[in-house]
Amino acid sequence: MAVRDAAALAEHRPGTVVAARFGFYKHVGIVSDRWDRDGPMVISNSKRSGHGAEEGMRLFAAGTPVRIVGFPGTLPPDEVLARARAVMTRPYDLLTWNCEHFIRHAHGLPRYSPQMRAAMGIGLAVAGTLMVVGRRRL
User: What is the CATH number of domain 6-113?
Assistant: First the structure.
């Protein structure tokens, strides 16, 4: 991706959300308007950095494939990037300020984490099932 051809630029439009899958979760970030020697950089919030960071696509993905998620909001790309950069020093928190909260904030969308909601729903379902099974044994 070192060559800045028209197809690569169109595919990685600044402000676009990209994702890298790591086991059971995906890490999301925002394509930057800055490039390093390997291609576009990504702005994301991660536990690894402890806050927001602007880094190369390779570092963001840590060797996993990157897929384009899309452009979820209606804000112009320059505003999305400005909003992301404005909160890069906010400390990472899995429950209240993870990568999904970060990208949704940057796009001007309600801040929540779809993956956290899904995990909490699964947790509640498992807990409920265990309670029902436990009562049946009594």
Answer: 3.90.1720.10
